[in-house]
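Run folding on both entries below.
>entry_1
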Amino acid sequence: MRAIAQEIRSVIEEALDALAEMQPEDVLLKKTPDEWSKQEILGHLIDSAANNHQRFVRAAGDGAADFPTYDQEEWVRVQQYQQSSWEALLALWAVYNRYLCDLIERLPDDVTSNYCNIGTQEPVTLEFVVNDYLRHLRHHLADLI
């Protein structure tokens, strides 16, 4: 799990400079009313960190933990990320991900095969969830940078 944590840490650090240089008019721009702005995408990545934080900790403690899916559109709508400060969101995102990297590094090897039941999907291992978090992070960062 150390390698995955290091990869997440590298992805975060590489993205930070480019994200910090973005201008308000660029991060708030919505190409269509139904599409997320870059600021809303960053908010979604914070939501992803929060949801996965729960999964990492609970699956490590009680294998086969049951988790709800989350309605990403509703989370973004309710939190109104367009009204937030880009700098504050960026700082929260970076700190939260650095913390998750520390957590992932501390997960004992014997819990990585614990299962997570997320919604009605087939159960997946904690290791899969951590790897999928990295995949998801890269996917959305490609939209941001």
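>entry_2
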Amino acid sequence: MYAIFETGGRQYWAQPEQVLRVDSLGLKAGDKVEFDRVLAVRGDDDLQVGQPYVEGAKVVATVVEQGRGKKIRVFTYKRKKHSKRLRGHRQDFTAVRIDEISV
């Protein structure tokens, strides 16, 4: 069984007992979170696709940790002008473990 759900403007493919890194939700470790914007659910033998969301479907997860991703460096320069800029960025994330997918 799996589900495709949406949170933070991104779509995630999830199975039970899987750990996903989603955009930061601002919750503490151990908190329960429920994603109700489910786009598709695949059971044992049937596939339900929403228009745009599946009615009554939800994905229940537990927050495992809060953290920051790997640092990326953004380097910009303009040739012949002696202009350079180096910036870094680390994206905040929330790691969640999928407990249950229900329709």
